Structures are given as C-alpha cells and as structure tokens.
Amino acid sequence: MIDRQHPLLIVTDLDGSLLDHHSYRWDAAQPWLERLRQQLIPLVICSSKTAAEIVPLQKQLGLSGSPFIAENGAVLQLNSEQRLQPHSGSLSYSALCQQISRLQTQFHFTPFHQLSDVEVSAVSGLTLAQAELARQREASEVLIWRDSEGAFAAFQQQLAAQNLSLLQGGRFWHILPADCSKQAALAQLLTTLSATAGGKLTTIGLGDGPNDATMLDSVDYAVVIKGYSKQPVELHRPDKDNIYFTAHYGPEGWSEGMDYFLTPDT
C-alpha cells in the first residue's frame, strides 16, 4: 500500500509500457485508465515520442489538455497553451541535425531527418500517418546505428564534446542536449503541479526502457515493465521496496504494476 496522504500522480512512458511494443495498442490498460479518470487521478505521459504524436494520443486516451513530457525530456508541455524546451542551450532542431550529420563522415548511422515517412514506417512499425508525426521533432533526433561497438564509444565521446547525450529507447538511439532528461523535465513539471496542488504529490512512474531510468529513480514508486531492450533498466535508488518489476510486457505489465501499488478501491 502506498502513502496516500498526498494527491497521487501517475507518470508513464508510452512505447513498450502503456502502449504495446508491436501493435501500439493499450487495451489491457483500459480498465485502469477508466479508474484513474473516474477518480480524477492525473496521468502524465513522459515519452520519447514527439509532441505531435502525443497530442492525438492524449485525445484517444481521454487525457486532452494534460501536461506531458516529449522527446525524452527535451520538450515539456505544461498545459494546452504553454510548451517549453527546458534546456539551457538554444540549439534548434535543424541546427542539431546539421551538427549530427557532420559526424557521418566518421561514423555509419542514419538519422530520422534523412528518412522518408515510408522508411520510418518500415523500421518502426508505425503507420504512414504516425511516421509523419514521429518526424515532426522539435529538440532531439533519432538515429539508427549501423557501425561497430568500438565506433559507438568514439561516437558518444564526440557527442559529449558537443554537449549532446545519447539515450537508448525501445527501438532506436536518441540524441538530445546533454542537460535534458525525463528526470529533469519531470522535476520542473512537479514544481509547477505541486504549487497548484498546494503541496507534495505522491508519484508512481512506469517505464520499460533504459531511457526511463532517470524518471523511475525520481518518482516515489517505480514500476519497471518487462521490455525488449538488450540493455537492462538499471535503477540506483536505495528504496528497493518501492520498485516493482513486472512479469508481463507492455500494457499488461503496466496494469500489473498499477495493481501492485494500488488497491482496487483506490
């Protein structure tokens, strides 16, 4: 049983978590989504997806107008009118792409901005319409690595020298400003929401990939959903009793984690 002295907030990854890794459906999580909506418990999406992808998904999930975190923390939507890029640099998406493209003289990789909607659809399993939204990036880039492991380490060093970081998602690698993360964006969002709520919020986070680790380390209760990434989700928090590892993937695991931390009459 979790501490319910403070208002509850759910923070969730999408792909491989609330959404099925293969079909992008959330049917198994629907009963919990209904329960949260009925009890007015807010659900914040915290994803590698773009804002262009998240907004229509919010509508389908019944979350329109709610805050969300996009592009692994490079974009923060506080409300329906206010969207931020909460990092100290002023690098535009086009400038970021130019910076990354220069590295193709040394390394073999394909960034999303060099792919068509058809090609993104083929490598991701998204529909053409969804692929178009996935390419509407604002502050980070996605790439498909095609080089050796040895080259990869050198590539990371080159990015770090340019104040850029590399994160592994469920399918692809993501490049974003070094001071961006899901954790940092969530901290900024919680400061705003706590002020509105008049005090601390109790948070439950759910995610399946290495790029969710910082977010899962920063919430009060963490659900690590069984995922397909070759790299495990490694958490560094000391309160192991507040971490739950699911036996199921995707929305089934998402619901399993919610069941674990919240009683049916929550």
Automatic annotation (TrEMBL):
Q: What GO molecular function annotations does the UniProt record carry, in alphabetical order? A: mannosyl-3-phosphoglycerate phosphatase activity
What InterPro entries is this protein classified in? Answer: HAD-like_sf, HAD-SF-IIB-MPGP, HAD-SF_hydro_IIB, HAD_sf
Q: Does the keyword Hydrolase apply?
A: yes
Which UniProt keywords are given for this protein, alphabetically ordered? Hydrolase, Magnesium, Metal-binding
Per the UniProt entry, the Enzyme Commission number(s) are 3.1.3.70
One Pfam match, by short name? Hydrolase_3
Q: Which PANTHER family match?
A: HAD SUPERFAMILY HYDROLASE-LIKE, TYPE 3 (PTHR10000:SF8), PHOSPHOSERINE PHOSPHATASE (PTHR10000)
Q: What is this protein called?
A: Mannosyl-3-phosphoglycerate phosphatase-related protein
What is the native source organism of this protein? Candidatus Pantoea multigeneris
